[in-house]
Amino acid sequence: MAQQDAQKGSHEVREPTPKIARLHENSDVSGNAAPFFRVKKHSEKAVLPARGSPLSAGYDLSSATETKVPARGKALVPTDLSIEVPEGTYAHIGPRSGLACDHSIVVGADVIDADYRGPVGVVLFNSSDVDFEIKEGDRIAQLIIGKSITPDVVEVEDLDSTAGGAGGFGPTGV
Question: Hey, which of 21, 33, 105, 172 has its CA 20 to 30 A from 4?
């Protein structure tokens, strides 16, 4: 339908496309994809994201300040970093398994869009009964870059039937 409107000279207002590099525009000399992950440090306390091993999917994020995540509470922990990922990707902030398992610390507010350039903060939730102390430089979360698709939204009267149906949580009996 959007294509038909465009062909008929629709008067739809569109915002200009931001100048964000596309994933396929970043290639090495052999033409192979070499996507970038650009990071700006806002202070000397900022620690560049780093992978713990060559096969790690995530980059460790570190706190730029000392802070406390109160028992049964939450805190926004600054990294003093801004990031840039290619168009067609997004950054996901996930928990570190050790903090989740050992201290009941998990992450909230976890998606960073490709066009966001502001400071990256990590929202940490503490589901334990003990305050959690964070020191400057502590690894607090991991950042994973994923591909994203944004198909057009189409309103319909009905959806296709599936074996899962509309049974709510756990409809397949798993």
Answer: 21
